[in-house]
């Protein structure tokens, strides 16, 4: 029986991944801050480890063949690069070194982000071999993830390193919620304002299966985009209407208005006010952040489900948790 050490097991992806691995017979050691908040039943092959990334985790990796590092700082309102670097880069480096010291870990799987790769529009989709572009290269989150990627790739001769780059994940067990906020912001609205850009959406279950496939089939030092449906924000919200049974008046937001809001957010951040509104984030909303999944399909053998299934799972979960009213 293979044993894996997983960080970020309480999050959207972590919870789905743990469930998937247990179903496949893995022994899972899951790092969580609060074991009581884990959304899953007790299992004989699951060990919940209370702790955080700032601790020495080497002893918890005993007998683990694989480390899957999911935990990350994703909040958009933090003001300094160091706020993201501390978790997304420095903690990754520390975890990797602990895995080396353990002596049992053979593979280190880093869950990064598609935002570290070059995006494009429908005419030339972004892929693993394209470098990050503006405005994402100005994103503290993306920069910190890319810094961690570069360190791991520079040390791939010490241990097998697999990097997966998911796009925007949707599905059940979004407890915060995190990416599911896009559903909440549009649910049962009579008037819905939407930005001019778009993004790639993927079912979190497909990402979980992609990580497992990466362990089994991934090549050392390679990146794998886990991506599926390229949709404009307008198209996504129209798809969501099938589950809300309501057709709001949809009004597009202009680029200049979003840029103006971004300048205002930058001024607030300059004076120390934490806000997710910034010029970089507003410019990102105006981009068609589209990708292709050709490499993960061909090399990892992933069969992606329609994004409708992910939306259905997310809505069903939110309803069961009384998040949607």
TrEMBL record:
InterPro entries: Epimerase_deHydtase, NAD(P)-bd_dom_sf, NAD(P)-dependent_oxidoreduct. Residues 4-225 form the NAD-dependent epimerase/dehydratase domain. GO terms for molecular function: aldehyde dehydrogenase (NAD+) activity. One of its GO terms (cellular component) is cytoplasm. It comes from the Bacteria. It holds the Pfam family Epimerase. This is Nucleoside-diphosphate-sugar epimerase. It comes from Flavobacterium lindanitolerans. The lineage of its organism: Bacteria, Pseudomonadati, Bacteroidota, Flavobacteriia, Flavobacteriales.
């Amino acid at each position: 029986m293979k044993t894996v050490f997983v960080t970020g097991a309480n999050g959207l992806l972590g919870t789905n991944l743990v469930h998937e691995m247990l179903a496949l017979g893995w022994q899972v050691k899951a790092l969580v801050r609060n074991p009581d908040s884990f959304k899953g039943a007790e299992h004989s092959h699951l060990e919940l480890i209370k702790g955080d990334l700032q601790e020495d985790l080497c002893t918890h990796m005993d007998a683990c063949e694989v480390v899957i590092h999911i935990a990350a700082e994703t909040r958009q309102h933090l003001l300094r690069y160091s706020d993201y670097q501390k978790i997304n880069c420095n903690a990754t480096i520390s975890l990797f070194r602990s895995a080396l010291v353990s002596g049992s870990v053979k593979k280190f799987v880093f869950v990064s982000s598609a935002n570290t790769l070059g995006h494009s529009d429908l005419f030339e989709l972004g892929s693993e071999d394209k470098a990050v572009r503006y405005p994402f290269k100005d994103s503290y989150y993306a920069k910190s993830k890319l810094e961690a990627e570069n360190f791991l790739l520079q040390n791939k001769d010490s241990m097998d390193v697999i990097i997966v780059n998911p796009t925007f994940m949707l599905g059940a067990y979004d407890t915060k919620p995190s990416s599911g906020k896009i559903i909440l912001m549009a649910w049962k609205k009579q008037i819905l304002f939407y930005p001019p850009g778009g993004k790639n959406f993927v079912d979190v279950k497909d990402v979980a299966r992609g990580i497992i496939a990466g362990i089994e089939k991934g090549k050392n030092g390679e990146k794998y985009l886990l991506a599926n449906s390229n949709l404009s924000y307008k198209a996504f919200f129209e798809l969501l209407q099938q589950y809300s049974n309501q057709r709001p008046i949809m009004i597009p937001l202009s680029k200049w208005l979003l840029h103006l809001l971004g300048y205002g957010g930058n001024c607030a951040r300059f004076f120390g006010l934490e806000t997710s509104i910034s010029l970089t984030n507003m410019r990102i909303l105006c981009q068609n952040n589209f990708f292709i999944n050709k490499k993960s399909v061909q090399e990892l053998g992933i069969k992606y489900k329609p994004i409708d299934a992910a939306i259905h799972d997310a809505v069903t979960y939110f309803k069961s948790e009384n998040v949607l009213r």
